[in-house]
Amino acid sequence: xxxxxxxxAGSELHAWRQFLARSTLWLGVLLLGSAAICWxxxxxxxxxxxxxxxxxxxxxxxSALAAAWAGLRLRGTPGVRRSIPGALLALAGILLGALLALxxxxxxxxxxxxxxxxxxxxxxxxxxxxxxSQAVWLLWVLVLNVAAVLWLGExxxxxxxxxxxxxxxxxxxATLNLLLLLGWELAARRWKASTLIGPRILAAIIVSVLVLxxxxxxxxxxxxxxxSGIAWLAVTLGLGFYYQKVRRDLVILxxxxxxxxxxxxxxxxxxLIRMAPGVWAALPLAALLMAEAVxxxxxxxxxxxxxxxxxxxxxAEPAAASAGNAVEPADSGAPVAQLAPxxxxxxxxxWYVQCLLGLSAWLATxxxxxxxxxxxxxxxxxxxxxxxxxxxxxxxxxxxxxxxxFWRQCGTAMAFCGQILIIYGLSDSTSVARASVFVLLMAxxxxxLGPDVILRFLSGLLIAAAGANLIWTGLSPDLMxxxxxxxxxxxxxxxxxxxxxxxxxxxxxxxxxxLTLSHRLGSKRGHTLRPLAWALLLSVQGMVWLxxxxxxxxxxxxxxxxxxxxxxxxxxxxxxxxxxxxxxxPRRHVLTAGVTWGVPIGLLILALFWLPSPGVGFxxxxxxxxxxxxxxxxxxFGVISLLAYLGVYYYQLDVPLLDKALWLxxxxxxxFVLRALVWLVPRLMRTQAPSRRGPLPPVSxxxxxxxxxxLGGLALVLIVANGGxxxxxxxxxxxxxxxxxxxxxxxxxxxxxxxMALNFAASREITRFRLGAERPQNNDxxxxxxxxxxDGYVMLAAxxxxxxxxxxxxxxxxxxxxxxxxxxxxxxxxxVRIVTNAYFFPxxxxxxxxxxxxxxxxxxxxxxxxxxxxxxxxxxxx
Length: 878
Known about the structure:
By secondary structure, this protein is of the alpha+beta class. The chain is 65% helix and 6% strand.
């Protein structure tokens, strides 16, 4: 919601308190959930199984019970009645995943990762139904999609054998998300569920899957050719009608338009190549893409200007707001949600229209580059320089004229293509530093002269890249590109601090300064700087994924070895403090001293926890700047960048998982303390009148059912988890000892930490048995992968050393001879899997298990088994 033109005294103070309360709560939830996952993945052996399971289940139960209590206690406060229980249930949902990961890790049953996510989705569903929280539902949708993708991944070979391509898995994913979208829309109409984020994410997944299938994978298919096209056309027409006529959502319509542009690139491109083979087909194809984007932009803006008669769902974004127009609050005296003055009328298209036009510009630029590269017009670096300068000048001239939207789109593509050609022309003719300076000046000139937001954004990306290259060459003049690529793709921890951290910190501070400056300048000059700010934001986010942090206890040693690097680490951690002062200090007269000074002081303490994870501090800085400068998109970008960084941070190897858990968990606890202070301090200082809470209203029927759903879901989780523990402990105690030969390797699992990928030698024998088995007579037309049963039992007999060897396979565990042991096997992706394909071990102990030659199992009479430990060549435990 935008700021109204009228404000009550103290409305900004109320808005800041509300923002701090919600941000500290949700940030604490995310960090504590991430800490739990890192702690489980670390596989810390200093705690017994009972201690680990009790601690995880206790924290999970505490979160769920707190959510149920908060829902009942806050039933008389509509503003927080669902936000706090929703946040606590989201935390419980993340801890549920950590508990299941711990279960699979402890008993070595977590190799089928899709089963972990499938059980996670099943057990999380009662809480999602009870919470009525968009965050919990989005978590459930994410978990369900990951489970589906992992399940399909184990059957890719079978799908491709039967259907000659991956169309069927992609149609499965599109159908699954289409059903989820249908359910979300029904909930919006029936229970006023929020439609601001969920439907847009689901629509983007559906369109992306179908478009990718049409553009790439359908090229290799024959039997299913055309199925993807029919599905995409039906989805586009159906969703387009619904989101235009029934419930208008211009963002989803823009997503559908982007899909049309991409599909037309494939369809029309094939037709043009058949009609006129050669590179000249790229030019009309580029013109078509730009014309489509211009038409779609006009269509969307026309829809935004037409009021819609149906009443939107609760929390839905109004059409005018999604079109980039300000929306006044219903009550001018209501507390505001953003703090900056009302912005000047927007002269650029809405953000989703800019993305659509940007996609068209990117594709058109690529087609122009293809044309220039293969037409023979440019055959040397000097020719590339000349052609680049001509295209840049022509593009800028078109943009500065009174040309229509189509020609302006052409001008953007020409100017950006010209810059790429200039970079190519400079690649071998001069030094890296001189070339970077020239590219920086060239992009700055194009940025200043080209009055187009998309061209300025693309030029801003080149400015960021050139600046990064200058820093790199300054740090290491002899740095070769192959070393840079090796560092990029290899995550070389020795170079992370040296190369990526200076870029990330410098870029982050530059982005924050440009954002603040664009707001302070206002009007036209400030508006001109925004594309550069966004280019720096996106560039920094890519760099921070590669930049490792340093724990606080290692900072003195780093200072002695590399003072400049230590200063950069500290500067990155202090960025949220500077962002808070930039937005709070100008409003110190309307805010209390507790807010003006308390927020920076709290962030200063939290800076200790951002040292090992700079991306968290950067995301928090974007969140603060976005809220304080009334730029909601920057705040949303901060949330998205935080979620993305936490996912990438898990796989960074320069900080141990246990240290990550410690720092993230400590930051979460401190954030919860700050959340309590946000509520307590104003009441102690009497800057907020204590609410005179009357008697709570009676518990309504829906609230009663939601509470029972939370408690019932908790009971179900505990029953399933402890039942699984009991079954596995029983098998470990009574199962027969079986030793199998193996061959390991070493990656890192999703959520479960480091593991050895196992390939039991017995699997080869089972494959030989299956290949030699007689085919069923009625299945001669089926591929062998489907004609044989996927699961079965192999009979094992021990040799003279006690190592089990396969004797035969059969469909049931019985019958078998006296000395034989039945062991169940499964076929996944046309490969035989015995018990598990992974052995989880504590982080940092890879060398210990590299010499493993055998695996020791406990096998029950029915063929079920658990992997217990690794054995060396001498059959002794490692």
